[in-house]
Amino acid sequence: MNTALLWEISKPGRIGINLPSRDVPELDEKKHLPDNMVRAAGNGLPEVSEPQVVRHFVELSSKNHHVDKGLYPLGSCTMKYNPKLSERVAAFSGFANLHPFVPEDFAQGALELMFRLGELLCHIGGLDAITLQPSAGAHGEFAGLSIIRRYHEARGNPRKKVVIPDSSHGTNPASIVFSGWQPIEIKSDAAGRIDIDALKPHLDEDLAALMVTNPNTLGIFERDIKKVAEMLHSVGAQLYMDGANMNALLGIVRPGDVGIDALHYNLHKTFSTPHGGGGPGSGPVAVKEHLAPFLPKPTVVHSEDGKYHLNWDVPDSLGKMNAFWGAFGVMVKAFSYIMNAGAEGLRKVAENAVLNSNYLMASLKDDYELPYRSTPMHEFVLSGEFLKKFGVKTLDVAKQLLDFGFHAPTVYFPLIVHEALMIEPTETESIETLDEFIKAMKEIRKMAENEPDRLHEAPKNTPVHRLDEVSANKQPIFKWQDMIET
Ligand SMILES: *Cc1c(COP(=O)(O)O)cnc(C)c1O
């Protein structure tokens, strides 16, 4: 069904709000505004009643897929259900209406929350100090690498290169370049892990760090992480961890205990903030003691007088990384989420995320290809390469899933798997939902063989059907006017 646009149902004189009568003189546009700002015609706003507006937006909200509507197994993104409690807490007026320039004395609650969230995140990661400033995972990577750069500079040699495995997320090489280094890609071994032998030739005084995602983007745990850390440290290099996949480790492995020097969290992924629409996110960076002097400032401190302060007196700090103090609303949600779960709850999150993923993997591995056979953690990667013999691509599988009411998994990433389907169910899905997804995937497998053309035409049940993805990305239409012109 096509949604009527508000402009189309507009009727002159129909109004949806009651405003008190004006108690100031009417503005004479011609007299008070520069010529180029005076409207030639009316403002063109739709004239509609309140119920019409409400129905319009409720309907629009149901057109997109979202996690409150159904499974969203978008690998690497950790699209778990976001508890409404956290939204409620973040909306408390003392948090939501706090002015960023409010004097510290009037913001003690907010500062305490930031301080305690920092302590919790340090504890969860087995690290010593933290900045909450970065706005997202990618921003955290840049912050973390910049901290490492300062550290090397302070020791007299900024070094030249950073090693990444070929399974790494695209933001990793980008952050390395932005931090002034050259990214060096090494091949993963047959099991999908860092290949120690491929790392060895790069171990020298020019190596600044290795960036690793653990579990990596194949969903596989880097078992040799301690050994990798020792090898790096033996030449003075640092081990940076992309913590986007911390959902698999909560309460089980503390990265700091296995040799990680710096780590970013994606609060919006692991600690549950809605992030399907592109933000807001938060990417705190936790580090070991030796990197603490270089953290962005201000840091949040708890002083002897019992008060919380923003500390600007950090002489070796790399500076400020964000407007004001970071994405405070996301911090509130993460704090609420962690306090609500408790230590045992967080461990259960990881256990169930891994269990759900393994249940899906075991149920689907015979219908699709599983290129890396190591036991996955919270996500796993299938390949649709074998479907090519039916003239079907991974993209077609993804589109058909939309028709079955599921969001598609991540496709064509990681790059080392051809026709990749990267599936991350998260811990918040019930076994009934997982079974429905398995049924849909098996059905699609049969369709590929028997009626491939149906897959090519999917999706048919969604508000828009198959899009030309290139022009949808390069020339998106956001405005009603543009739709009429095209
Ligand atoms: C999501 C993700 C990132 C980037 O995080 P953003 O918060 O989107 O900037 C980096 N690495 C991995 C493995 C990710 O999944």
Please outline what is shown here.
The protein has 486 residues and is α/β, with parallel strands linked by helices. It has helices spanning 6-9, 29-32, 50-63, 84-90, 93-96, 108-125, 137-154, 171-178, 196-199, 225-234, 267-270, 328-364, 394-403, 431-450, 452-457, 469-474, 480-485; strands at 129-131, 161-165, 182-186, 207-213, 238-243, 262-265, 285-287, 299-302, 308-311, 380-383, 410-411, 420-423. Helix 4 packs antiparallel against helix 12 (328-364), helix 6 packs parallel to helix 12 and helix 7 (137-154) runs parallel beside helix 8 (171-178).
How many beta-strand elements?
12
The SS-based structural class is alpha/beta
Unreliably modeled segments: none
Distance between the termini: 20 Å
Summarize the topology:
Blueprint: H1 6-9, H2 29-32, H3 50-63, H4 84-90, H5 93-96, H6 108-125, E1 129-131, H7 137-154, E2 161-165, H8 171-178, E3 182-186, H9 196-199, E4 207-213, H10 225-234, E5 238-243, E6 262-265, H11 267-270, E7 285-287, E8 299-302, E9 308-311, H12 328-364, E10 380-383, H13 394-403, E11 410-411, E12 420-423, H14 431-450, H15 452-457, H16 469-474, H17 480-485
Parallel strand pairs: 2-3, 2-4, 4-5, 5-6
Antiparallel strand pairs: 1-7, 6-7, 8-9, 10-12, 11-12
The structure holds pyridoxal-5'-phosphate.
